[in-house]
Amino acid sequence: MTAATAVAVASVTRIAEKAMGWLSDHRDGFDLDDSALDPAADVDKSWKPLGELAQMCSCVRRDTRPGTFLHDTASDLLRHAWRQTDDGSLFLALQRLEPHATYPLEVYAAFAAGGLRHPGYEDFAAGLVRSRSWRTAEMLPNRRLSVVNSERRAGLPPSHDTATVLRRTWLGALPEPWAFERFAGYTLTHVVYHLTDWGHDVHRVPADVADYLTTWLPAWLDGCVEAQAWDLCGELLAVAAGLPEPPPPESTEHAWQALALAQDADGALPEAGRGPHGEDVPRVFANCYHSTLVVAFAAALTAGRRTRNGDGGGGGDDTGRGAPV
Prior knowledge:
Elements: H1 3-25, H2 47-62, H3 69-84, H4 89-97, H5 103-113, H6 119-128, H7 132-136, H8 141-153, H9 162-166, H10 182-196, H11 207-227, H12 230-241, H13 253-262, H14 285-311
C-alpha cells in the first residue's frame, strides 16, 4: 500500500469510527416500543430505523477485522438490535399479523446477513414466498430488488429474476445524467445495494451500469457537496466503493473531505447542512441517525476496498459474514 493510500484509508476509517461511536452512544434511539406489533403504527419510526441499524452494522462487521473498534462496536450494536426483536421471535409474530407485508422479511434479512437467524420465522416465510400473492405484490422495481435480495439472504428461493427487474429501474435504463435528482439518487443507490448485497458481491453490477456510474458519480457528488446533501452524498460514496472497479480515489476525495468537515465532533452527521429555507438543522436523533449510519457504512466499505486494492489484504473480506455475533 502506498503512503497516500494509507493516509486516505486512515482518514475514512476515522470518519467511520466517530460515526460508530455516536451510534453506540445513541443506541436507545433505535429501540422498539409497545407499538412494534401494532399494524396501524408507523413502521418508518420503529422497524425501519432498527433494520437500518442492523443492516449497516452487518456491513461494517463484514468489512472490518475482528478486534478493531469498528468491528467490535458493530457486533455489539447488532446484538443489541437483535435483542430488541426478542432474538427474532417478534418477526414471526409480526409476519403472522401482516402475512402479505414484505418489510418484516427485509428487516430480518439484515440480521440474517450478520449470522442471526430464527428458524421458525424462516419456515413460516418459506410458505409465504411461494404464494401468488407474494409474487404479484405491486411495488417499485427497486423495492422488488430489495425483496429478492432479502429472500436470498434468508435462504429462500428468489421470487423474481434480478437481471430482469434491474432493467425496469431508473438506473437500469441508463437515463440522461442531467435527470439525476434527489429521488432518483436514493433510488439508484438502493438498486446498487440490493444488486450487490450491500457491497459484498460487486461483480453483480453489469458492465454498462458500472461504466455509467463511474462516469457520472463524480459530477453527482459535486452537486451533493454544493447542496450540502450529506445523507445522499454518503450513499453515493457507498455506491462508488461497491462497484467492480471503484472510481479513482481522487475523484471522490473532495466528497470525503466535505463529509469530514460536516461531521460533528461527537461523530454525528446531519442529513443536510441546512434546512429547506436555509435554516440550521437541529442536532436531534431523527435528523442525524440515518446519515450517520450511512457514512459509517460507506467509510468502512471504502477503507476495505482501498486496503485490498492497495496490498491484496486488509479488512474487507468475509470476516464477519454469516458468523455468529
